[in-house]
Design goal:
By secondary structure, the chain is α/β, with parallel strands linked by helices. 31% of the residues lie in helices and 11% in strands. It has one domain: Rossmann fold, CATH 3.40.50.1240. The protein contains seven helices and seven strands. Strand 3 (110-115), helix 3 (119-132) and strand 4 form a beta-alpha-beta unit. InterPro entries: His_Pase_superF_clade-1 (IPR013078), His_PPase_superfam (IPR029033), Phosphatase_SH3-domain (IPR051710).
């Protein structure tokens, strides 16, 4: 019988493959925004669609940073004065909601941070980014949702929303270009427009997959995890996209976060599973889960939040059809973005 020679190199390669980390991606909603607690506010960028964080929101951002970086107890007391109601993805609603999952923070190694261009998201991302010395990548593709019928949404002659540019946001918020923010980053979805719920889901389908592809190309060994700082509706749509479940019951309170882990499946489309849904233990001293938001109608949650950890064994025909339609719409959106039409 022929014998098989196992070389030291082969042993090391096998051990390396076995030890390779699974990619994690964390979606966090921004902290409490100023207009949730006061009728007027001063926008850092001078837009009525761009409120800053409230004092509590800054504290929540500090608590989140301490929680996921493993540094401190996340008491949030060092927050300073500085959300989502302009679109329909973040308006204040009754506090509450439920979440499942536990642990996971200590396993995170966040090295890639993407943020919506709106001030409240950048302000939420900054405490962690500065702790980790990671420059933010501003991605309009995970920006706020504005309904087509939203009268507060300012659009230009091309129908594009008036969204702060990277350099405008940097100047308004005192960011150091090249240190706090990566001005060289080319966003997956460079422009935003008012959308229907289906168009929003399609946009996030394209954006989050583009983000994952970019990170996988830059970090093929999975040395770092991904953080996306966004708004309620985009957060829900992004998680649903990775799960291929358009009505997944995602929890989205202010500064709560949902964590997904990629399987060992082949790239570029690994299966993802949720390990934390609406995690908010870091906010216990700041009111817990607040302003939880969810869709109604066609994209309303399918089942209780706990269901997300296993998911239905088979989606309904309606859900499957919705998923197919969203995927088709996302492909069209990606093609339009590549052609410079978005």
């Amino acid at each position: 019988m022929a014998t098989r020679t196992v070389t030291p190199t082969a042993v090391l390669q096998a051990a390396h493959a076995q030890a390779r980390r699974q990619r994690r991606i964390v979606f966090v909603r921004h902290g409490e925004r100023q207009d949730f607690i006061a009728p007027t506010f001063e926008s850092p960028t001078g837009r009525n669609t761009d409120p800053p964080l409230s004092a509590k929101g800054h504290g929540q951002a500090q608590a989140f940073a301490a929680s996921v970086s493993g540094d401190g107890d996340g008491d949030g007391n060092d927050g300073n004065d500085g959300n989502d109601g302009n679109g329909d993805g973040d308006g204040p609603s009754a506090a509450g909601g439920s979440a499942g999952g536990s642990g996971g923070e200590s396993q995170l190694r966040i090295r890639h941070i993407f943020s919506s261009p709106f001030s409240r998201c950048i302000q939420t991302a900054l405490p962690l980014a500065r702790r980790l010395h990671v420059a933010l990548r501003i991605e309009p593709g995970v920006g706020e949702w504005f309904r087509r019928s939203d009268a507060t949404a300012a659009v230009d002659a091309n129908g594009d929303l008036d969204v702060p540019s990277v350099r405008e946001a940097a100047a308004a918020l005192g960011l150091r270009v090249g240190v706090d923010v990566d001005a060289a980053y080319e966003p997956v979805v460079p422009r935003l427009r008012p959308e229907t719920p289906r168009e929003l889901h399609a946009r996030l389908h394209a954006a989050v997959r583009g983000i994952v592809r970019a990170v996988d190309a830059a970090d093929p060994e999975c040395r770092g995890d991904v953080l996306v700082v966004t708004h309620a509706a985009p957060l829900i749509a992004a998680v649903r996209s990775l799960l291929d479940w358009p009505r997944a019951p995602v929890v989205a309170g202010v500064c709560s976060y949902t964590t997904l882990v990629a399987s060992d499946g082949p790239a570029p489309s690994p299966a993802w599973r949720v390990v934390q849904n609406g995690e908010h233990s870091h906010l216990q001293h700041l009111g817990g889960l607040l302003y939880a938001w969810s869709f109604s109608g066609e994209f309303s949650p399918e089942g209780p939040p706990e269901l997300i950890f296993n998911g239905p064994s088979a989606h309904s025909a309606t859900t499957a059809a919705t998923a197919a339609a969203v995927t088709t719409a996302a492909a069209a959106a990606a093609a339009a973005a590549a052609a410079g039409k978005l």
